[in-house]
TrEMBL record:
GO MF terms, alphabetically ordered: protein tyrosine phosphatase activity
Domain Rhodanese: 95-204
Enzyme class per UniProt: hydrolase
Protein name, UniProt field: M-phase inducer phosphatase
PROSITE patterns membership: RHODANESE_3
Lineage: Eukaryota, Metazoa, Spiralia, Lophotrochozoa, Mollusca
Family from the record: Belongs to the MPI phosphatase family.
One Pfam family from the record: Rhodanese
Native species: Magallana gigas
Membrane-spanning ranges: none
GO biological process: cell division; developmental process; G2/M transition of mitotic cell cycle; positive regulation of G2/M transition of mitotic cell cycle; positive regulation of G2/MI transition of meiotic cell cycle; regulation of mitotic cell cycle, embryonic
Function description: Tyrosine protein phosphatase which functions as a dosage-dependent inducer of mitotic progression.
C-alpha cells in the first residue's frame, strides 16, 4: 500500500527538475537557427548585388554621389582636388548633408596650412572617439554624410586610417551586415600637397609645411610614435604582461 504513494511523490519531483531545462533547450534551438538563416540570406543578397554593381557604397544601398578617379589604392574610392572644391563650394548640397574632410597629417603640418574646415585626426583613438563613440546621423534620409580622408600625399596615413574606420564600423555592425555608420568614404588623391598646388584659395593659411620639415624633426618623432601606438591593440611582447586596473 505504501509503494504507489512513494512512486507518486518521486514522479512530480523528477519532472519538475528536468522539464524546464529540456523545454528551454527545445525553444532556443529554432530561434538560433532562424536568426542565422536570416543573416546568411542578407549577406548573400548583399554580395550578389555588389557583384552586379561594383560601384556601390559600403552598405551596397546606392551609387557613390561623387565622381571617382583611378587612384593609387585600388580598395579605396579616390576623388580629385577639383571635386573636393566643388563639395566645399556647395555644389553637392542637394545630395550631401555633411561632408567632413579628415586631415590625417601631424599637428604641425596641419597648422602650417590645411583645407578649410578640415578636422585634424591622426591617431586611431581620435578616429574612434570622433566617429564611432557617437556615430553621425542624417536628419534628411535623402541626403548623405560623407568622409574624405587625406594626408600629405594620401599614400599611407590617410588610407590607413580610412581602412581602420571601415574595419571597426563593420565590426560594430556585424549583427546587421551590410549596414554601416559611414558607408561613403573617399580618399583625396594626391593629398594636401596636390590640393594646395591646385586649389590654394581653399586652404588656410595658404601655406604648405611638409612632414619632413627641418624645423620639426622632434615633432615628427613624437607624433609618429603617438600615431602608431593604440590602446586597442593587444601587445604580445615577451617579458611584458598587461597591467590590470
Amino acid at each position: 500500500e505504501n509503494t504507489p504513494v512513494q512512486s507518486k511523490r518521486r514522479r512530480p519531483f523528477s519532472v519538475d527538475v528536468t522539464s524546464p531545462f529540456e523545454e528551454s533547450k527545445k525553444t532556443l534551438k529554432p530561434k538560433l537557427h532562424r536568426c542565422h538563416s536570416e543573416s546568411e540570406a542578407m549577406i548573400k543578397s548583399a554580395l550578389n548585388r555588389v557583384a552586379d554593381e561594383p560601384d556601390l557604397i559600403g552598405d551596397f544601398s546606392k551609387q557613390y554621389c561623387l565622381p571617382t578617379i583611378q587612384g593609387k589604392h585600388s580598395d579605396l574610392k579616390a576623388i580629385s582636388s577639383e571635386t573636393l572644391t566643388q563639395v566645399l563650394a556647395g555644389e553637392y548640397d542637394h545630395v550631401i548633408e555633411q561632408a567632413i574632410v579628415v586631415d590625417c597629417r601631424y599637428p604641425y603640418e596641419y597648422e602650417g596650412g590645411h583645407i578649410k574646415g578640415a578636422q585634424n585626426l591622426y591617431t586611431k583613438e581620435s578616429i574612434m572617439q570622433t566617429f564611432l563613440k557617437t556615430p553621425m546621423t542624417s536628419e534628411d534620409p535623402e541626403k548623405r554624410n560623407i568622409l574624405i580622408f587625406h594626408c600629405e600625399f594620401s599614400s599611407e596615413r590617410g588610407p590607413n586610417l580610412s581602412r581602420f574606420l571601415r574595419k571597426f564600423d563593420r565590426d560594430s555592425n556585424k549583427d546587421c551586415y551590410p549596414q554601416l555608420h559611414y558607408p561613403e568614404l573617399y580618399l583625396l588623391e594626391g593629398g594636401y600637397k596636390n590640393f594646395y598646388e591646385n586649389q590654394k584659395a581653399f586652404c588656410e593659411p595658404q601655406t604648405y609645411k611638409p612632414m619632413l620639415h627641418k624645423d620639426h624633426s622632434e615633432d615628427l618623432r613624437h607624433f609618429r610614435l603617438k600615431s602608431k601606438s593604440w590602446a586597442g591593440e593587444k601587445t604580445n611582447r615577451p617579458g611584458f604582461r598587461p597591467l590590470k586596473f
